[in-house]
Inverse folding.
């Protein structure tokens, strides 16, 4: 859309223990290990998307685990390289105001689950700032 | 993109017997039954996409077969309603000239396979006319 190269900038990446909320989201046991990754997608000097993903490590093939935790590889490319058959279940689509994701600019927020073998492989929340940056 | 409602217009729909080419494309026996569907996607009075799909009927769940052969339901929605886990393998991306799909206007043509359980569930060719109709 921008005709510029999009870069994936990893803002943070941790292994966390699933609390009650995360456990319910991913259908895993409380306390199990989850990779939490926050990235921003930018083109030129503009950030267009803020994305947060939660992936239960117990369900991840070993090579995928490495890719996921290593670097700035987009999720789509990781799934692609493993030839995984998946479906995406959209769970939420809403406008949120006064979030600090984009310094208080209202965002369109959507969440979905990437499902493989009927298990949640990844939960993703994407946020798109609602302002004139999309008038390309 | 157009901010108008997109309609799926079925141009033709047949059950055909797989010839050598189709059999190779779908990895089925020659002579097996295949659903061939040609649709156009329009918004306003403009056609934006011409799509041809080939689906081996032997691999189709019964209810899906009915949806596919019945009416103007987009493929994505059909897959969605069956909760199928799939992957898409892109096979071709090229510019074709002097095709009658859009009265000789050059088209961007892409083909891909929708794969489920490591079998081709559907082969799809989409053609996008290369002209000013995309300046929205």
């Amino acid at each position: 859309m921008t005709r510029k190269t999009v870069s994936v900038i990893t803002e943070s990446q941790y292994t966390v223990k699933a609390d009650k909320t995360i456990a319910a989201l991913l259908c895993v046991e409380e306390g199990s290990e989850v990779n939490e990754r926050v990235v921003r997608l930018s083109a030129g000097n503009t950030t267009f998307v803020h994305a947060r993903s939660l992936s239960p490590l117990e369900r991840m093939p070993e090579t995928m685990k490495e890719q996921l935790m290593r670097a700035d590889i987009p999720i789509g490319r990781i799934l692609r390289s493993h030839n995984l058959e998946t479906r995406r279940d959209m769970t939420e689509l809403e406008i949120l105001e006064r979030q600090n994701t984009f310094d208080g600019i209202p965002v369109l927020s959507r969440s979905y689950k990437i499902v493989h073998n009927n298990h949640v492989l990844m939960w993703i929340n994407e946020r798109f700032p609602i302002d004139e940056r999309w008038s390309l």
Notes: The two ends of chain B are 7 Å apart (CA to CA).
